[in-house]
Q: What sequence folds into this?
C-alpha cells in the first residue's frame, strides 16, 4: 500500500465512521478533555491499523474493535493516572468534539449515562447492540462466546428496563 492509498483510505474511514468513534468515546469518557484524548488515541490507532486491514470483516466491525480496545485500555490507564493526580478538566473552550458532536435529547443522554455505568464488556455490547450487530459479530469484536453475548445482552436489557421503571415510573 502506498502512502497516498493509506491516507486516502484513512480519510474515507474517518469521514464514514466518525459517528462510531464518537459513540465509543461518549460511552467511555465523560468530560470534553477526556473525550478529546480518547478520540485522538482511537484515530491514531485507526491510522496505524489501515495497512493491517485484511477485509475479513466489515470496516465498521474493524473500527469498532479498534475503538473499543483503545477505550478499554484508555480507561485502565486513566484510572491509574487519576489516582495520582487531580485536574480541573472542564475549562476547554474550543473542542473538536463539541463542534462535531450533535445535540442530543434527554432520553439519549439518559441512555448513555446508563451505558457508562456498565462494566467494560457490557458497555461495549450495549454500543454494538445499538448499531444492530449480530451476536456472532459482537462475540468476534469483544472476544467472548456468542452464548455469553446473549446472556449479557439479556441482563443489560433487564437492568435498563428496571432502571427506566425506577426513574420514570413506567
A:
Amino acid at each position: 500500500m502506498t502512502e497516498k492509498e493509506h491516507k486516502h483510505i484513512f480519510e474515507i474511514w474517518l469521514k464514514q465512521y466518525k459517528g462510531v468513534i464518537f459513540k465509543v468515546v461518549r460511552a467511555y469518557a465523560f468530560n470534553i478533555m477526556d473525550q478529546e484524548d480518547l478520540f485522538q488515541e482511537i484515530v491514531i490507532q485507526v491510522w496505524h491499523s489501515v495497512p493491517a486491514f485484511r477485509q475479513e470483516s466489515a470496516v465498521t466491525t474493524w473500527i469498532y474493535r479498534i475503538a473499543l480496545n483503545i477505550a478499554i485500555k484508555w480507561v485502565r490507564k486513566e484510572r491509574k493516572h487519576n489516582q495520582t493526580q487531580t485536574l480541573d478538566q472542564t475549562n476547554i473552550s474550543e473542542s473538536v468534539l463539541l463542534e462535531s458532536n450533535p445535540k442530543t435529547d434527554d432520553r439519549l443522554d439518559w441512555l448513555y449515562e446508563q451505558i457508562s455505568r456498565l462494566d467494560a464488556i457490557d458497555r461495549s455490547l450495549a454500543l454494538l447492540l445499538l448499531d444492530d450487530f449480530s451476536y456472532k459479530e459482537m462475540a468476534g469484536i469483544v472476544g467472548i462466546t456468542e452464548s455469553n453475548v446473549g446472556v449479557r445482552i439479556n441482563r443489560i436489557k433487564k437492568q435498563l428496563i428496571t432502571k427506566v421503571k425506577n426513574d420514570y415510573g413506567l
